[in-house]
Amino acid sequence: MRAMHYEITLPADYDMGIIRHRVASKGHLLDAFAGLGFKAYLMRERGKDGSPVNQYAPFYCWNTAAGMNSFLWGPGFQQLADDFGRPVVQHWSVLAYEDTGAPAVTPRTAVRHRQPIPATSRLPELAEQLADEARRSVRHDGAMSALTAIDPRTWEAVHFSLWEGAAPKGPGEVFQVLHLSAPEREKPATGRQW
Hints:
By secondary structure, the chain is an alpha+beta fold. The chain contains four helices and eleven strands; from the N terminus they run E-E-H-E-E-E-H-H-E-E-H-E-E-E-E.
């Protein structure tokens, strides 16, 4: 499994209704995309939920590398690059994925938290701790799914969770979920991925 994310930061006076319209008219195009666990169409608005910026920032969980590559080299991502410029695409190897099994419920909020991994960390113990964080996240009321992933190039962990309503207070950036494409959300095995 791979997690993937990019951020398109927009001007402070940008009409975020344009992003809402874009997602409302095009979000369904990935609702049956092969290899995609889920795509959360995320948005932050300056001054809301502590956001200092306007931002369109989709987050993906890919079940297959072929699905991720098909998207990145396909017409949908090219259209995004044509409209906003080609963003830097961050990606991580998923260590743990947890899901509450409520696919009929639509998430309204997402939280992303990045964490640097110190060079002194013992990796086996750290991997267990990071997997535990995903398990703990889905125990909260309103939690739908959570994952923890690692970029071994930069040694950064990312924690990502989807919520039915407001997320509990804690570290990380809060996003509005405008749409969730989840063609293969039930396919990945939950728990640790090693």
